[in-house]
Amino acid sequence: MKTTVDYITKLTSIPSPTGFTKTIMDYVAEELSSFGYQPKRTTKGGLMVTVKGENDDKHRLVTAHLDTLGAMVRAIKPDGRLKMDLVGGFVYNAIEGENCTVHLAKNGEEISGTILMHQTSVHVYKDAGSAERNQTNMEVRLDEKVSSAEETRALGIEIGDFISFDPRVLVTKSGFIKSRHLDDKVSAAILMKLLKTYQEEKVSLPYTTHFYFSAFEEVGHGANSSLPKETVEYLAVDMGAMGDDQATDEYTVSICVKDASGPYHYELRQQMVSLCQEHQIPYRLDIYPYYGSDASAAMRSGAEVRHALLGAGIESSHSYERTHTDSVEATEKLVDIYLKSQMID
What we know:
Layout: H1 2-12, H2 22-35, E1 40-41, E2 47-51, E3 55-65, E4 70-76, E5 82-87, E6 99-103, E7 110-117, E8 138-142, H3 149-154, E9 162-165, E10 170-171, E11 176-179, H4 182-200, E12 207-214, E13 231-241, E14 253-259, E15 262-263, H5 266-278, E16 283-287, H6 294-300, E17 306-314, E18 321-324, H7 325-339
Parallel strand pairs: 3-12, 3-13, 13-17, 14-16
Antiparallel strand pairs: 1-2, 2-12, 4-5, 4-9, 6-7, 6-9, 7-8, 10-11, 11-18, 14-15, 14-17
Helix pairs in contact: 1-4, 4-7
């Protein structure tokens, strides 16, 4: 797991809120090129690596997304602090107290800050604990000597500048990985590790396979375009959702049977189950009630493919997340074995 965990650590350290992914795509493209691949950029910012297989008539496509949750500058307040507009589906409570970085479009500079309630001080505000965490009350306190909107604008900050959150990645001795944006940089790290291994070991896949690193999943339209017409099977490698009534845990691979878009392809899902059983890979079947994936976005766009979704179990999704290397390993093994297997009839 060392290589995969190293990639997770590296990827989570690169800011990439949806719409601001060029830096991370450049890194992944450079890394994959160093293996000998020829990654291609899609028009809307994704990255595609095609591995020629023994059968070139029917293709597979596997995705992971590199865009993350984030925010943009919504307004500059009279006291120089910033009002935010969220990018992606999460709540303000999940980022309260988080350190962040404002990425200035004007000059490319970065300014650090902290996301706080306006009514933070319990010594001043009676409703510090009860006030609603929303756009009106949450703000960015900049680490600069500013006390007016004019002083903040003089730094170069403007409406629309992206805000990224400190990932705070930590790998414990017990095998847990804690970080923001494990959704979906765990999966991207897995795909990078597999591509590296396939090149080093000269692995021949049974079908031409496209590895698609998408850039707009968190807003619902990630890898729903640029699909080669020969694509028959579409696998989204994303996160398994944990919580009440969920079977997913941090130690197995989670295979999604249904999300907010509806059921996934039954026969392809059953193939994943059979591969887990045949190869002693620990797994869980689960329903993710408030969830969509690159695969479901492709289906809504009219893709004529069999689609499946699986991933490592992620605790506290869209907040300060956690998983375990056991789950990462199980997910990596299943993706690897699937890509080396024959298609279902």
